[in-house]
Amino acid sequence: MTRLLSRTFPSVKLRDCNFKAPDFKKSQTQVPISSSSSQQSQENSKTPKSKSWSVYLILSTTEPIKTYVGITTDFARRLKQHNGEIRGGAKASSAGRPWLCACIITGFTCLSQASSFESKWKIFSRKLPRRKKDEEMSQSDALLQHRRRALEKVEESLECSHLETDWKI
C-alpha cells in the first residue's frame, strides 16, 4: 500500500522497516534543582498571574428595553465600550445605548469557566417561558425577572458556590 501511495503521491516517503525509534529514556539526564531556583518558583506562585473573569448583565435605557449578557476581566472598561465612550463593544449592544449594569457575577478563574456560565445563562434565558406581563410591572422589570429566573436555573445546574452575584438593579 505504501508503494502505491508513493508512486501516486511522490512526496510520501517509503518507510524503512529497519528504522528504530530513539530511546529517550536512556538519553534523559537528571538536573538537580538548586534551593535558589525553588525559592524563585515559590515567590512566583505567590503573585497571581491570572485575571479574574466576570459575567455581567446590562440593561438598555432606550426603547425597546433589552438586556445583554457578556464576559470580561474589566467591567468598567467594557461598559464604556458598550456605551460607545471608547472603541470596542459588541455590535448587538450599539442600539440600546446607554446601558446600565444590572448584575455582575465574579469569581471565575479562567475564560472557559466564564464562557460556559455565560452560554448556559443565555440558553436558559431563551428556553425559559416568559410570564405574562403584569400591568403594574414595567418592561425592564419583566426582563430582569426573566433573567434572574434563568440565572437561578444555571446556578442549580452548575457548581456556583465560589461565585459572588451582585444585583445592582
Automatic annotation (TrEMBL):
Enumerate the InterPro entries for this protein: GIY-YIG_endonuc, SLX1_endonuclease
Domain of life here? Answer: Eukaryota
Nuclease found in the keyword field: yes
Q: Name one GO molecular function term.
A: endonuclease activity
User: Quick check: keyword Acetylation in the entry?
Assistant: no
| Region span, Disordered | 28-47
Q: Where is the GIY-YIG domain?
A: 51-131
List keywords of the entry alphabetically.
Endonuclease, Hydrolase, Nuclease
**Where are stretches of biased composition, namely Low complexity?**
28-45
- Its name, as the record gives it, is GIY-YIG endonuclease
